[in-house]
Amino acid sequence: MKSKTRTVAAVVSFTASLVGITAAEAQPAHAASSCPANAPCLYQDPMWSGGIYVFGPGATSGCWNIAGYFDNRTSSIDNNRSRPIVLWQYAGCRGESKYVYENWELSSLGSFDNKASSVSFPS
Ligand SMILES: [Ca+2]
User: Fold this and answer.
1) Could you report the per-residue pLDDT of 15-34, keeping only the tens digit for each?
2) How far is the CA of 114 from the centre of ligand 1 (A)?
3) Ligand 1 mean position, distance from CA 76 (Å)
């Protein structure tokens, strides 16, 4: 198990450099305490502040549109779940996308700021 964990970490680091995520953006979990356990949370403002949009335990697969007020307002993420999520530019999980690893927090979204309109949960 230990060697598998190291391999996964190396792949994450390599992929992060490819898509231009800086070390400042990718931080260990638990900085954002307002997000419930096992839930992916979207925040209206950077640094996990402002309004919060929480995906419940039923959101484990498929594509979910971000309803109402939160559409195009997400500025930081706490993926407080042991599975990745993908943010999408348009409803129905179309357009540009941004991958968020399991148990990762992003204090800002760079070019994806205020863009997300749907979220998918890859199996
Ligand atoms: Ca915002």
Assistant:
1) 333 333 444 444 444 455 68
2) 5
3) 8
How far, in Å, from the CA of 3 to the mean position of ligand 1? 39
Cα(94) to centroid of ligand 1, in Å?
Answer: 20
| Closest by Cα among 87, 119, 90, 91 to 19 | 87
Q: How many Å is the Cα radius of gyration of the chain?
A: 14
What CATH number did the domain enclosing 106 receive?
2.60.20.10
Tell me whether residue 34 is in a domain: yes
Question: How many other CB atoms sit within 10 Å of the CB of residue 69?
Answer: 10
Q: Which residues surround ligand 1, an ion (CB under 5 A)?
A: 44, 73, 75, 114
> For the segment 70-95, what is each residue's pLDDT rounded down to a tens digit?
999 999 999 999 999 999 999 999 99
Whether residue 51 is contained in a domain is answered as yes
- What pTM was estimated for this model as a whole? 0.72
